[in-house]
């Protein structure tokens, strides 16, 4: 019954349920409330789970030494809870921390202040409302976000601290580095916990010389270093429909000046990262006695970077920066001119500025050529030793050398969706539309942890008579650290199957 049914044809491309905060805004319609009813808690309410810093029981959860009351919204697995204490961005010589330090060097003190210790537990107000997310925004769904209780969650992005820092107004700019949490798919570039760096720069229109904001911003732009990287930027600084400036708040000259300062600042950051990546590859080649320094074998692709228009509820106009990497455009950050409502709401209506949010793992993967996001969580010396001494001396950065590629073993699981998910289940909403793949991903992560490389939907079927729906997922088991035995893989797969039955109520085919 739990057999590994193999289906050769991969039927559907994978679509991330949440590839970005920006994307989500474009989906409309209220969050399907039935999804809430379908969730069964990912932890046993009786059995207290305990790790170094985390304890849960049916009523409270302790995270980083603080206790929080849980309620029916609680959906954080013990695996994810156990990661809240890791703080990779603060771990000396960890690639995430090294990447943070390099980015900080491009945004120097005292103009920028660094905040690296904010607690991951925030209110729904901080994470969503303070940033202008509408009440029915899909990002608030329990299928996408880890809730402690109805009003408290694990932050999904570092922007959760924006309003607080705008209010404090302690410096001309800031950087926040922190762990962020999203229920998401399982593959080599997605992990339920990753690290973001948020940056912002503000000017006070009442305090700049002659109250000429645009001139002050342009003068600061002039003081920034220049770079000779080619950047594709085909769109105008703002567009009335697609990417409007904030009429009534900013003149065209002001919006254009802030946008130019923002883009140059971020281009300098990308240039810094890629210059270091290039130097690292050249040094590795030289050490391997590989041809002359002019041999560009591993860097044959010239760096390509482009700006694309984007949407965030808390910036306008907005952009994403993409880098051409391994044959495709990879989004590395989102940014824009901060919405004036945020400054006003923080009691600083005369402030104007920009903000950005970047994924540190994504940048670290480019910088060190780290092929799998799970590696960042490894405590294996063969991983960690490759970065030792680099934080204090970034000239020692070298491309990561994979220590092994252990064999993969995939197993399929086929099941009928539970009544509430199934068209035959009498759900007036059509049921199956409320099936959330992220719930399955969470069960898999909980049962098999980092031994799962990816999970893919390989078959779907609707029974022509009963309307019952079935799905088949292929789970690819591969440890980064050792060769899994058949028995280990089978045991993990059995745990996955049991978890799907117990937590999602599916019926195994
Ligand atoms: C945000 O999170 C916004 N808060 C960014 C922002 C800040 C915009 C300030 C404007 C002003 P987004 O969801 O696109 O946006 O994520 C930002 C970056 O985080 C992405 O560009 C990417 O580099 C990284 N990221 C997002 N999801 C993942 C993921 N699942 N795994 C790894 N990195 C991710
Ligand atoms: Mg995005």
> With helices defined by DSSP (H or I, 4 residues minimum), what is the helix count?
13
Q: Could you describe the largest sheet, including whether it forms a barrel? A: 8 strands, mixed
Give, in spatial order, the strands making up the sheet with the most strands. Answer: 5-9-10-15-14-13-12-11
How far apart, in Å, are the first and last alpha carbons?
Answer: 7 Å
Mean pLDDT: 85
Structural class, from secondary structure content? alpha+beta
Subcellular location: Mitochondrion matrix
Catalytic activity: tRNA(Phe) + L-phenylalanine + ATP = L-phenylalanyl-tRNA(Phe) + AMP + diphosphate + H(+)
EC number: 6.1.1.20
Function: Is responsible for the charging of tRNA(Phe) with phenylalanine in mitochondrial translation.
What does this 3D model show about the protein?
With 509 residues, the chain is of the alpha+beta class. The chain is built from 13 helices and 19 strands. The protein has helices at residues 21-26, 34-38, 78-83, 95-106, 124-127, 162-168, 213-223, 252-287, 340-345, 360-368, 381-384, 437-448, 486-504; strands at residues 49-50, 55-56, 60-63, 66-69, 112-115, 121-123, 147-149, 152-154, 173-181, 193-204, 231-232, 305-312, 315-325, 328-338, 351-359, 409-416, 452-462, 469-477, 507-508. The strands form 4 sheets. It has an 8-stranded mixed β-sheet. Strand 7 and strand 8 form a beta hairpin. Helix 7 packs parallel to helix 8 (252-287). The longest helix has 36 residues, at 252-287. It is globular. The relative contact order is 0.14. The model is unreliable at 1-53, 293-298 and 423-432 (pLDDT under 50). Bound molecules: adenosine-5'-[phenylalaninyl-phosphate] and magnesium ion (MG). The site of magnesium ion (MG) has 5 residues, from strand 14. It is found in: Mitochondrion matrix. Residues 404-509 form the FDX-ACB domain. It is an enzyme of class 6 (ligase). Residues 163-399 form the Aminoacyl-transfer RNA synthetases class-II family profile domain. InterPro entries: aa-tRNA-synth_II, aa-tRNA-synth_II/BPL/LPL, Fdx_antiC-bd, Fdx_antiC-bd_sf, Phe-tRNA-synth_IIc_mito, Phenylalanyl-tRNA_Synthase.
């Amino acid at each position: 019954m739990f057999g590994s049914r193999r289906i050769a044809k991969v039927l559907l491309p994978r679509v991330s349920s949440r590839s970005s905060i920006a994307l989500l805004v474009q989906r409309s319609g209220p969050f399907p409330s039935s999804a809430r009813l379908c969730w069964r808690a990912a932890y046993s309410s009786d059995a207290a789970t305990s790790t170094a810093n985390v304890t849960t029981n049916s009523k409270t959860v302790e995270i980083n030494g603080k206790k929080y009351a849980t309620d029916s919204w609680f959906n954080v697995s013990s695996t994810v809870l156990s990661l809240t204490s890791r703080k990779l961005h603060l771990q000396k010589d960890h690639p995430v921390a090294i990447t943070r330090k390099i980015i900080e060097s491009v945004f120097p003190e005292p103009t920028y202040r660094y905040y690296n210790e904010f607690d991951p537990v925030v209110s729904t107000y901080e994470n969503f409302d303070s940033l202008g997310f509408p009440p029915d925004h899909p990002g608030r769904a329990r299928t996408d976000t880890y809730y402690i209780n109805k009003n408290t969650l694990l932050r999904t992005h570092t922007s959760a601290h924006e309003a607080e820092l705008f209010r404090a107004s302690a410096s001309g700019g800031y950087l926040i580095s922190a762990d962020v949490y999203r229920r998401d798919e399982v593959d080599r570039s997605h992990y339920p916990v990753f690290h973001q760096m948020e940056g912002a720069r503000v000017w006070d229109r009442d305090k700049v010389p002659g109250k000429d904001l645009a001139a002050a911003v342009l003068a600061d732009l002039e003081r920034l270093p220049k770079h000779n990287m080619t950047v594709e930027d085909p769109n105008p600084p703002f567009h009335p429909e697609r990417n409007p400036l904030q009429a009534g708040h900013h003149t065209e000259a002001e919006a254009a000046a802030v946008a130019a300062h923002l883009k140059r600042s971020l281009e300098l950051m990308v240039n810094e990262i890629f210059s270091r990546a290039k130097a690292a590859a050249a040094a590795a080649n030289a050490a391997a006695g590989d041809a002359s320094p002019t041999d560009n074998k591993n860097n044959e692709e010239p760096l390509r970077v482009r700006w694309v228009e984007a949407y965030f509820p808390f910036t306008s106009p907005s952009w994403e920066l993409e880098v051409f990497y391994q044959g495709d455009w990879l989004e590395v950050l989102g940014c824009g001119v901060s919405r004036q409502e945020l400054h006003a709401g923080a009691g600083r209506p005369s402030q104007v500025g920009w903000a950005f949010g970047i994924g540190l793992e994504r940048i670290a993967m480019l910088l060190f050529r780290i092929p799998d996001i799970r590696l960042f969580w490894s405590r294996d010396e063969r991983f960690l030793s490759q970065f030792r001494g680099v934080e204090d001396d970034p000239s020692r950065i070298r491309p990561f050398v994979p220590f092994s590629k252990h064999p993969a073993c995939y197993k399929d699981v086929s099941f009928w969706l539970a009544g509430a998910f199934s068209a035959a289940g009498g759900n007036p909403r059509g049921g199956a539309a409320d099936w959330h793949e992220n719930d399955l991903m969470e069960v898999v992560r909980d049962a098999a942890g980092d031994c799962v490389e990816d999970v893919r939907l390989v078959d779907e079927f609707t029974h022509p008579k009963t309307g019952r729906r079935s799905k088949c997922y292929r789970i690819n088991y591969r440890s980064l650290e050792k060769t899994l035995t058949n028995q280990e893989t089978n045991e993990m797969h059995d745990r996955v199957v049991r978890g799907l039955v117990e937590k999602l109520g599916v019926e195994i085919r």
